[in-house]
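Posting this for the archive.
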Amino acid sequence: MATIGRFFRAPSGNFFLFGPRGTGKSTWLEQVFPDALRIDLLAPEMLRAYVARPERLREVLAAQPMRKVVVIDEVQRAPALLDVVHAEIEARRGKRRFVLTGSSARKLKRAGVNLLAGRAVRTSLHPFMAAEIGAAFDLDRALATGLVPLVWDAENPTRTLQGYLSLYVREEVQAEGLVRDVGGFARFVEAISFSQASPLNLANVARESEVSRKTCEGYLTILEDLLLAFQVPVFSRRAKRQLQVHPKFFWFDTGVYLAARPAGPLDRPEEIAGPALEGLVAQHLRAWIDYSANDCGLYYWRTKSGSEVDLVVYGRDAFCAIEVKNARRIQPRDLRGVRAFCQDYPSARPGLVYRGSERLVMDGVPCVPAAEFLAELRPGRPLPL
């Protein structure tokens, strides 16, 4: 993992660096800020010390005035430290730089992370992008075990992935007392995995989880606060048709989706492989947007009559409608969604990403092999359509 360069670039000044466990935050920080004063709140003894006396940070900083960069790992575990950090930033403007990492936004929301509003930029580190891995990228492997650096770099990626979700349930959910019914939450995780790359119907998920809808909404918030999942809203700018109202649900990484979703002999392969491929493209587009620092957003489009575009990238720097097909061959009917979208939005650039090996143009729509699209997707460059 240490040999793979990341596209993420640190902003100037103070910043929060969020990302799920295992995305390589600590490794990246060690490479970029090797001489930083580092406070690792995953270490139990250090966590106890700073939870008991947050002002200890001020004393440590006073003893090491030459350290110009201070890294606090997993700051959400001791949110009271934010008050001390805030005071230090105000007292020594520009003389010391703070980098605060976190794998959960939940405690920081409660503790008032807004105390640092305007004084620390919020950034995100995502799973590997294909172009970061380069020639070693393998689409089949990425679809099987995902692109979380912790998993990709493991000697046994499958076994590591199997333990990834249980790590979160044990260390983040259960240990922090985020839910009372751990069994209900585990059922929810399994049930919502069937919603990958689909409009989210919480009533159905609640029924399958055997919990109330309100409880289900709380569980979904926990997944998002832990950065394990995200939702993609419907694109509704100047809508000319009646549209779907529910957002799409995605796990932050395709491998984590596969770890959460139970599979058996009654499951058709395409029921799993299709959402996995769309999720892989979605997580890449999400990283491309964040790392490019543009004003684009990620959406999808679906009308009440059934016309659909899997992913829409919209902003000042791009307006693209992208269909994702887990198929080796493309049929004219596969282009209906993007063609309908372009009728409503003629300025949009259509494209289709599929599992074939040849780049095609069918009825004016570029059709790009998934492996090629992902390998060429780089922050700061146009989408490779």
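The two ends are 29 Å apart (CA to CA). The chain has a mean pLDDT of 90.
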